[in-house]
Design goal:
Structural class: alpha+beta
Low-confidence stretches: none
Strand content: 25-35%
Shape: globular
Helix content: 25-40%
Number of helices: 2
Number of domains: 1
Protein name: Methyltransferase type 11
Number of strands: 4
Distance between the termini: 16 Å
Organism: Flavobacterium hydrophilum
Mean pLDDT: 96
């Protein structure tokens, strides 16, 4: 199981719900959640053979910043 953490600029719960739905439609096996309380507005994605670059592309395509934290 791989866990990737991303810094985003998402501000609202309604935005997180939409982004999570889009990611889960493309990658139904991934566990996806946000921590908007964190200063980095963390997106956390967990899955087998996780493709972090695809996650970044999806979030960017939706108009949000998404940077992988290492």
């Amino acid at each position: 199981m791989i866990v990737e953490i991303f810094k985003t600029n998402v501000q609202k719960v309604t935005e997180t719900n939409y982004i999570i739905a889009v990611i889960k439609r493309a990658f139904p096996a991934y566990k996806v959640n946000f921590d908007l309380e964190d200063c980095d507005k963390i997106l956390r994605v967990e899955g087998v053979e996780l493709q972090y670059d695809n996650i970044i592309d999806y979030v960017n395509y939706l108009g949000y910043t998404c940077v992988r934290l290492e």
